[in-house]
Amino acid sequence: MVYAAPHVHPAIAPQSATAPPPLPIPGTPDPASPLTETHLQQLADAKTRARKIRRAAAIAAINGWTIGAFAALTALSALFSFIALPLAIGMGLVAWFEIQGSRQLKQLDPTAPRRLALNQIGFALLLTAYAVYQLIHAAHAPSPYAQYTDGASAGTSGGGGEMAAMLGPIEDLTRIITLAVYITLIVFALTVPTLTALYYFTRAHHLRSYLAQTPDWVVKFQRSAA
Predict the structure, then answer these.
(1) Which pLDDT does position 149 carry in this prediction?
(2) pTM of the predicted model as reported, rounded to 2 decimal places
(3) pLDDT tens-place string over residues 65-114
(4) Which residue among 4, 55, 147, 180 is least enclosed by CB atoms within 10 Å?
């Protein structure tokens, strides 16, 4: 007896030779990739070791853009105070060097931490010099209320004793606020940028250790991708 071959519906017919290959199983290396499992493991280990370097680069970038924003605001205030213009220019330079240092850290430049640290020391000196100048200026510049308070103390009618009595406490309060603002700025300049500079100096050790422990091909790959 002869049996006819069963009819197979096209929808359930076996795949032809032109059908796409099956998808690779997640987690398995691609046979067509030039990277072996050892290479992939070296990349993963390098990424873990570079965590502190990437964090320092991110901090430098944030510092740079923040200082740049304050430099722009300071430049606007130069319309009312000439001393604000050199301060704005100095802060702009600090911001530019900070952003450049962030890029150099991403490129694993071993000189970047030292440059960033020196940049922060320069920033501290800039702020301190500005605050000291303002303190000296406030101590020797004539008070805007002098024509009233001095006139009353000399017994003249320069604004009247009543006006002097009213403006005297305001003058004292203005002087106290001025002193407090610039002394606070000096304390800030001697602490925050100085501590940031110390932080950058310590990143140099991490970067040198990273370069010594990481294969050259991984370093070249990361520098080209930065």
Answers:
(1) 56
(2) 0.72
(3) 999 999 999 999 888 888 889 999 999 999 999 999 999 999 999 999 99
(4) 4
